[in-house]
Amino acid sequence: MDILYPGVKHFHMLTILLSVSLLTVRFFWSMTGSGMLQRKWVKITPHAVDTLLLLSGASLCFLIQQFPGSSPWLTEKLLSLVAYILLGVFAMKSQGKLLKALAFLGALGWLGMIAKVAMTKTPILMS
């Protein structure tokens, strides 16, 4: 395995932590009606972090020479990521608090799925 792998993997894990933390804080602010959501850095930072997350994930794919479509576990991880993103967006944009909360919890559920698939390198739904 490439000498870059450990550093890229740790950077990827850091961006995951930042992404989830930002989603959680923004969700809390949206539920409490905080004006913090209107701050420029709050609107820009999640996009920058998520871009770095996707780039580091793509880098890991190239380093281990496994790609979505040819590796079932990576395909499932990528599809789960799409579900996580869609529910995260829904949690932030919905008007009702119940829908926001359900979407947020759903996003966290998909995040758990992503973590399990990533750690075991075994698909759950596509097996």
UniProtKB/TrEMBL annotation:
GO CC annotations on file: plasma membrane
Residue ranges crossing the lipid bilayer per the database entry: 12-29, 49-67, 73-91, 98-119
Record keywords: Membrane, Transmembrane, Transmembrane helix
InterPro entries (UniProt xref): SirB
Source superkingdom: Bacteria
Official protein name in the record: Uncharacterized membrane protein SirB2
